[in-house]
Write a structure and sequence with these properties.
Blueprint lengths: L2 E4 L27 E11 L2 E9 L17 E8 L11 E5 L1 E6 L5 E5 L11 E4 L4 E4 L1 E8 L3 E3 L2 E3 L3 E8 L1 H4 L1 E5 L5 E5 L8 E7 L17 H4 L10 H6 L4 E5 L9 H18 L2 E11 L1 H12 L6 E5 L16 H6 L5 E5 L8 H10 L4 E5 L2 E3 L2 E3 L5 H5 L4 E2 L2 E2 H7 L3
Parallel strand pairs: 2-13, 16-17, 16-18, 18-19, 20-21
Antiparallel strand pairs: 1-10, 2-3, 3-7, 4-5, 4-10, 6-7, 8-9, 11-12, 14-15, 15-17, 22-23, 24-25
Helix pairs in contact: 4-5
Amino acid sequence: MVSAFSRRTVLLTGAGVTAGLAWPGVAVAGQAGSVGFTLDAETLDGGEQITSLTLGTSRLGPIDPASLATTTFSVHAKATSPIDAGGQDVGYDLDRPVTAARLDRHGNVVLELSHGEGQTGGGTLGYLNSRSRNVRLDLVYTITQHAPLRRHGRPVTFTRFTQGPLTNPEVDAFTHHVSRSGMKYRLYSPAPRRGRRPLVVWLHGGGEGASLPDGYYDNETTLRANRGALGFATPEAQKIFDGAYVVTPQCTAAWMDDGPRFAPLIQEIVQDLLRTRDVDPHRVYVVGCSNGGYMSLKMTTVYPATFAASVPICGVVEARKEGNPPLIPDAELTAIRTPTWLVASRDDDTVDPQANSVHAHELILRSTLTLYDHVVWNGHQFPGHWSWIYVARNDPSARGTHVWQWLARRRS
């Protein structure tokens, strides 16, 4: 029997489990009623994907691992947009190949799914061209059992599969918050110890902002579209920074729509964290990509005393339309005294690196520029605009020092 449930729904539906069973939900004839499963996700460089499903089978007792094979279960996935996509097909409806089936240390069945950069059908986000926004897709996963499992030599067949929550340990480590002005943000807090900690402010790209006309403001895509913020919460980064807070404000639109208006809202979050957490006011760093690259530079022009260093990635400083003034005038760039490390790729066809990152580098005193030819990681070539991947992996280096180490050494 097959059952399907929305990612946003965890309630059981349909007929109840047969009563009078020796094990909860296990029928006497080898049928095991309903079993719940979670969607296990990872944020890859190209965005979050569902990489496996975990079935809550530990309650049944020991299952013979020899009874598990990639053909024991099949998996189907359907994804749809939570808001009007304007006729664009942003989802998918397909089978997900099971590449491995195993038991985890708790005795739960784990179905590993085919996934990887560039693969369709595993992503949790969809990009709406009409809104220029990423949205979390509504996911419905369907599991079909084709052969029984075995427990103590007896067959076990499930009659229903109930979809539960999506879990992503890296994303889930960031808590949800709303500022006094109503701006949502996520916060990673380092392991507790004595002493004050650095704070990394990650400013997302245009695709991760809200779409308020649609009532869409999810405080999620900032951590699921790429590894920009997550990179600073990895054990490797935390060791370099000796434990750092990482905050990811989510814009109610796009930062470039009105940087001067959004700057005080970001600053309010920073000041609240300085007041309520053990943050070192001399080690506050701002890092951002694309739209957020612009906003990173803007923050250092509006609040020059707040930030010990800035890393604008593929940011925008030029005018958005011909005849308009530049987003950040040359005089403001020339006045920046915050240590600045710019990153971009020569093949960026979204934001011209020469007119933006290179131009800013030429004007910002003692700034550093890392300019790649292409964006390639682990053998996969990404669009040239995605140079934030390199910063999320601590790849840029200058004079023998990588960008995370450079940031960690800066003091205001």
